[in-house]
Design goal:
Layout lengths: L17 H7 L2 H4 L3 H17 L5 H20 L11 H13 L1 H4 L7 H37 L4 E6 L2 E7 H26 L1 E2 L15 H7 L4 E2 L3 H6 L2 H27 L7 E3 L17 H25 L13 H22 L2 E3 L1 H8 L6 H10 L4 H18 L8 H5 L15 H6 L9 H14 L1
Parallel strand pairs: 3-4
Antiparallel strand pairs: 1-2, 5-6
Helix pairs in contact: 3-4, 3-7, 3-9, 4-5, 7-8, 7-13, 8-11, 11-12, 11-13, 12-13, 15-16
Length: 459
C-alpha cells in the first residue's frame, strides 16, 4: 500500500494507512459520475488547447485516451482501485498510464474541488430532465384516469370524516395540480444547477488564462459562477433538489395513503391490480397494497437525506471541506428513490379499478349535503350563520330519528323554516350537489371538463 504514489503525495514522507484509504475513498459510489467527469475533462482539455496552455497534440492524445476509458467503463471492464480515492483520480491515473506526459497536463488550471461540483451539476441536470419527463407521464395518467371517471361521484373528506360530495375526477386532478407544481419546482431548481463551476480551481481561481465562457458553451451551461470561493463551497443546489424531491415524495405519499385506506374492506373504493399487491406468508386471504405502502415509507427516507444534507452544510467554514464528500450518497439515493417511485406509481395508477357504485352510495351518507341546504337558505335571503344553525338542528333531528337528510319530507323541512320549498329536495342528491359547484376550481362536471381541456391544450 505505502508504495502507491498519490498525485498529491509530493510533500508526504509516509504512505496512507490502509484504514484511512478505506475510510476516505468514495470511488465505490462516485464512479457513477464517470461519464460526466470525462465530459468535463474533454471540454477542459479543448479549452486548454484553444488558449495555448497545452499543445493540440496533447489535446488529441487526451481526447483519445479519455474516450477509450469511457468505453471500458461503459462496458464494465475498467478495473477500479480503492487507492484511487475517487472517480477523478481513477480516470486521471488511467489516462497517464495510457498516454504518458500528456495525461499529466489535463489537470492544469483546475482542482478536484471545482471538478466534482462540475460532475454533480452535469449529473443532476440530466436527472432533473428525466424527472420532469416521468412527472409528465404521471400527470398524463392522472388526466386519463380523470377522463375515465369524469362523472364518478365520491365522498369528499376533511379530518377523514365525510364532508361533501365531489367528483372522483376532481380528486384526481387535485394531484395533477400538485405534481405540476413539482415539475415547476424542478425546472426552477435547474436554473441554479445549470451554472458552470469549472475554473474556480481550489478556491481562488487560477493565474492561467482560462476561458470559462468557452467551456460553458461546450458544456451547454447558460451562466458561469461569479465567485470562486462560493463556487467550491456551494451545495445549495443539492439541498434544493432534495427538498423538491421531498415534496414530490410527500405528494405521492398522500395519494398512496388514500389508496391504502380506500383498498380496505371498510372503504372498498378501489381495487388495486394483483400485479401491484402482495400476499401474506401466513394469511392466505390477504391482498396487501405494498407498493403504495413502500412509496409512503420511502418518503421518510428522502426526508432523511434532506436533513443529512442540511446538517452537513450548516457548520462548514469556507470553502471546500472533505465533509462535502458526504453529499453524493444522499443525492444519488434521492434520485434513485424518487425516480423509481414516480415510475411505479404511474404504472400502478393505470391498473386501479375504482368502485363507482360504492363511492356514489357513500357520497350521500352522513349528511354530506348539509352545506347545500344552508346555501339554499342563503339564496332565500337568510344570513349564513342563521342558515347554519337551522341546518344544524335539522341534522340533530335526523340523528335523533336515525334518518338521512334524503329521507326527510318537505313537511319536515318546513318545521324548521318556512322558506323551504319543494326545490330543496333535488339538492339532497349528491349528483345535483356536485354540479351546483360551478365556481372556478369547483367540483362540478362543467368545471372539471373545462380544466381537463385547459390541461390538454397546454400540454
Amino acid at each position: 500500500m505505502n508504495n502507491y504514489v498519490k498525485p498529491w503525495g509530493g510533500r508526504f514522507k509516509k504512505g496512507t494507512d490502509h484504514k484511512v484509504e478505506e475510510f476516505t475513498q468514495s470511488i465505490h459510489f462516485d464512479r457513477r459520475l464517470f461519464r460526466y467527469d470525462i465530459e468535463g475533462s474533454l471540454a477542459h482539455a479543448r479549452m486548454l488547447g484553444k488558449q495555448g496552455i497545452i499543445s493540440s497534440d496533447d489535446v488529441s492524445s487526451i481526447r483519445k485516451g479519455l474516450n477509450r476509458i469511457r468505453k471500458e467503463m461503459e462496458a464494465g471492464s475498467f478495473i477500479f482501485d480503492v487507492r484511487d480515492e475517487d472517480i477523478h483520480m481513477a480516470i486521471e491515473k488511467s489516462l497517464i498510464q495510457r498516454i504518458g506526459k500528456a495525461g499529466e497536463k489535463l489537470h492544469t488550471g483546475r482542482s478536484r474541488n471545482d471538478q466534482i461540483v462540475l460532475d454533480v451539476r452535469l449529473y443532476l441536470r440530466d436527472e432533473i430532465n428525466n424527472l420532469i419527463k416521468i412527472l409528465k407521464n404521471l400527470k398524463k395518467e392522472l388526466v386519463e384516469a380523470a377522463k375515465r371517471e369524469v362523472n364518478t361521484i365520491m365522498p369528499g373528506y376533511t379530518h377523514l370524516q365525510k364532508a361533501q360530495p365531489v367528483l372522483l375526477s376532481h380528486y384526481l386532478l387535485s394531484f395533477w395540480e400538485m405534481f405540476d407544481r413539482d415539475e415547476q419546482r424542478f425546472k426552477d431548481c435547474q436554473k441554479r444547477v445549470n451554472v458552470l463551476p469549472l475554473g474556480a480551481a481550489a478556491l481562488a481561481g487560477t493565474s492561467l488564462p482560462l476561458d470559462r465562457r468557452y467551456v460553458a458553451r461546450l458544456l451547454k451551461f447558460p451562466t458561469v459562477s461569479r465567485n470562486s470561493m462560493d463556487t467550491v463551497a456551494d451545495r445549495d443546489f443539492i439541498a434544493e433538489f432534495i427538498f423538491s424531491a421531498s415534496i414530490v415524495m410527500m405528494h405521492m405519499s398522500r395519494f398512496c395513503e388514500d389508496l391504502v385506506i380506500w383498498s380496505s374492506s371498510e372503504f372498498h373504493y378501489v381495487e388495486i391490480s394483483d400485479t401491484y399487491t402482495t400476499g401474506s406468508s401466513i394469511m392466505p386471504q390477504k391482498k396487501n397494497p405494498d407498493v403504495a405502502e413502500l412509496i409512503r415509507g420511502k418518503t421518510g427516507r428522502v426526508y432523511g437525506h434532506l436533513m443529512a444534507m442540511l446538517t452537513i452544510l450548516k457548520g462548514l467554514p469556507m470553502t471546500y471541506n472533505r465533509d462535502l464528500q458526504e453529499d453524493k450518497e444522499p443525492l444519488f439515493d434521492t434520485v434513485d428513490t424518487v425516480t423509481s417511485s414516480i415510475e411505479i406509481l404511474t404504472e400502478m395508477l393505470s391498473q386501479i379499478t375504482f368502485q363507482r357504485e360504492r363511492m356514489e352510495e357513500q357520497a350521500g351518507k352522513d349528511f354530506s349535503t348539509a352545506t347545500d341546504i344552508a346555501e339554499y337558505l342563503v339564496q332565500k335571503g337568510i344570513a349564513f350563520r342563521e342558515a347554519h344553525g337551522i341546518v344544524g338542528r335539522i341534522v340533530e333531528h335526523c340523528l335523533d330519528n336515525r334518518k338521512e337528510l334524503s329521507a326527510l319530507t318537505l313537511t319536515e323541512f318546513r318545521k324548521f323554516h318556512a322558506q323551504f320549498d319543494k326545490d330543496v329536495i333535488p339538492r339532497l342528491r349528491p349528483a345535483n350537489s356536485v354540479n351546483l359547484r360551478k365556481t372556478i376550481g369547483g367540483t362540478s362536471m362543467v368545471m372539471v371538463e373545462e380544466r381537463i381541456r385547459e390541461i390538454e391544450k397546454g400540454s
